[in-house]
Design brief:
- By secondary structure, the chain is mainly α.
- The protein has a single domain, classed as Methane Monooxygenase Hydroxylase, Chain G, domain 1 (Up-down Bundle).
- It contains 5 helices and no strands.
- The chain is globular and about 40 Å long.
- The N terminus is likely disordered.
């Protein structure tokens, strides 16, 4: 795709250090209220993923990761968590100029901190 068309189709630059700091802040943020109704929660998370905003993807990873640790996830939410993690790991790998294995380790470290 020509670089001139990138903005028109919704492609953005990889986050820089300031963006990474914000992602880590989102991942470490205290628990936030989310809908108790599964379908509303799922729809809200789908909208966050579709937004393309790396901070909203980080919210999905954080919330589903915590929910999984506390109560477990449905099969649909497990797939969503895997997809959201993959998006975030890819972004971290590009931003940190590392491979996805190291980026996944970074993500896990931040989530457990």
């Amino acid at each position: 795709m020509p670089a001139a068309n990138a903005e028109d189709v919704g492609v953005r630059d990889v986050v820089g250090q300031e963006g990474l700091d914000k992602v880590f802040e989102v991942l470490r943020a205290p628990h936030t209220e989310e809908p108790t109704n599964w379908s509303r929660r799922y729809k809200a998370n789908l909208e966050k993923l579709a937004s393309g905003d790396v901070n909203k993807v980080a919210e999905v990873v954080r919330d589903l990761w915590r929910r999984d640790k506390e109560r477990g996830l449905s099969a649909g939410e497990k797939r969503m968590l895997a997809k959201a993690r993959q998006i975030l790991v890819s972004e971290l790998a590009l931003a940190e100029k590392t491979n996805e294995d190291k980026a996944e380790a970074i993500l896990d470290d931040v989530l457990t901190s």
